[in-house]
Design a protein that fits this description.
Radius of gyration: 14 Å
Helix content: 40-55%
CATH topology: Rossmann fold
Number of domains: 1
Order of helices and strands: EHEHEHEHEH
CATH superfamily: Response regulator
Largest sheet: 5 strands, parallel
Strand order of the largest sheet: 2-1-3-4-5
Number of strands: 5
Shape: globular
Distance between the termini: 13 Å
């Protein structure tokens, strides 16, 4: 699972260029980051490459983060971390999904890092128990 560079590989999905740039800069310090500007592009990249996590916005054009997550779940239990401000709508739409987590906007970078660390530990623990 861990890439050749010994960095976890994250698919970062957001339609806001400023948010993408900021998250790419900060996550790029610890992770190998691949960017997608909407859920449709993210789904295409997910089908072509191997990732350790997906970090995604919820509301995006073409294919929302929630719709993308439902498509990902058809073939993978990869952890998905949503960064969202819409708490109620988000909770309703992810009820049927597993290994989905959230960080509420606005957030601190340390909060995002801690959540990703927790996901890494949970996911790889579960993966090793199955193997």
């Amino acid at each position: 699972m861990i890439s050749v560079k010994n960095k976890l590989k994250v698919l970062l999905v957001d339609d806001n260029e400023d948010v993408l740039e900021f998250l790419h800069d900060v996550l790029g310090q610890s992770y190998e980051v691949v960017i997608a500007v909407n859920g449709l592009e993210a789904l295409a990249k997910f089908q072509q490459e191997t990732f350790d996590f997906i970090v995604s916005d919820v509301r995006m054009p073409k294919l929302s983060g929630i719709e993308m997550a439902h498509e990902v779940r058809k073939t993978s239990q990869l952890p998905i971390l949503f960064i969202t401000a819409s708490e109620d709508e988000f909770c309703e739409q992810i009820q049927s999904l597993t290994h989905v987590y959230k960080v509420k906007k606005p957030f601190r970078y340390q909060e995002l890092q801690e959540k990703l660390k927790q996901l890494h530990e949970l996911y790889f623990k579960a993966f090793s128990e199955v193997a």
